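Project channel, design review

CF: Before we commit to the Clostridium porci constructs, I'd like one complete example in the thread so the newer folks can see what an input/output pair looks like. Taking Type II toxin-antitoxin system PemK/MazF family toxin.
RD: sounds good, go ahead.
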Amino acid sequence: MLPINQGDILKVERLTNYVLVVSNNTFNECENVVVCPISKQWEKTALHIPIETKEVTGTVWCEQVKLLDLRVRGFAKVSELQYEDVMNITDAIQGIFDYMG
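CF: and here is what came back for Type II toxin-antitoxin system PemK/MazF family toxin:
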């Protein structure tokens, strides 16, 4: 299997939307990846972050975190995000789990 990196945008078999890999590269070595869907629809919220690459334009839905086993699904890498965009998205996801003591 080709290496999957945080920030990669994938087209995954049996999924309608592209997905953004948000798990880190060490985790991705186990062939499971944590992803968020990229929608063509847009609602203005703190958890819907617009992205644009040469190949893909859409909105990452950060509240729709999913674990995928890529050993059992066909997939193709379509594009990748810039580091700064990945940081903004992973910060938004982490904010969901922040402790509010």
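RD: helpful, thanks. The beta strands are 8-12, 18-21, 32-39, 48-52, 57-61, 66-69, 75-80.
CF: The radius of gyration is 13 Å.
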